[in-house]
Write a structure and sequence with these properties.
single chain; mainly alpha; 3 helices; DNA-binding transcription factor activity; bZIP_sf; bZIP; Ectomycorrhiza-regulated protein
Length: about 180
């Protein structure tokens, strides 16, 4: 036996195999672009249109919105008299949104279920418009980021080229910490 307490027969060998092999990590100049939530949907046109039917409720378990046959907003609306509805409140909407609201509100003698379905349909349309606006805004931001990144890289390349040119002519150039 050696003085360190290990047998010279087993020195350098392991009973556990050759062990893990290490590979050098590959270094790339740029990381792949991050996928945003908007890449799931390729364009605003890929979203459901306003003419698509409202999906039926198919819940496996009762949800917070499907517990009651009559929604709470409808019960509250029945308690107080409704003011006459005017179309002057739509002045804040764009022309596209105004065109989508061609469906007439239910008549005064409509059943409660028809009124609930109408309200649900209006909410569905509003949600679809909101998703479309959000997607268009996100795509605009992503395009802006791409353009600014490209522009930044262009100016960085120009600055480094000019710095190297100054150094090659023995003109002092300040060092930038970047």
């Amino acid at each position: 036996m050696s003085s360190s307490g290990y047998s010279t027969i087993h020195a350098g060998r392991s009973n556990y195999g050759p062990g893990p092999t290490r590979t050098a990590p590959t270094i790339t100049s740029h990381a792949p672009p991050l996928r945003s939530a908007s890449t799931r949907r390729y364009s605003p046109d890929a979203l459901l249109g306003p003419d698509a039917p409202t999906q039926p409720r198919n819940y496996v378990t009762p949800s917070a919105t499907s517990r009651k046959e009559i929604p709470s907003y409808f019960i509250k609306q029945q308690r107080r008299p409704s003011p006459p509805q005017t179309t002057s409140g739509m002045s804040g909407m764009s022309e596209d949104e105004d065109d989508e609201l061609t469906e007439e509100p239910p008549a005064e003698n409509a059943t409660d279920q028809e009124k609930i379905d109408y309200k649900r349909r209006q909410n569905t349309l509003a949600a679809r418009r909101s998703r479309k606006r959000k997607l268009m805004y996100t795509q605009q931001l992503e395009a802006t980021v791409e353009n600014l990144t490209r522009e930044k890289d262009m100016w960085r390349t120009r600055a480094l080229t000019l710095r190297q040119l100054l150094r090659s002519h023995n003109i002092p150039c300040p060092e930038f910490k970047d």
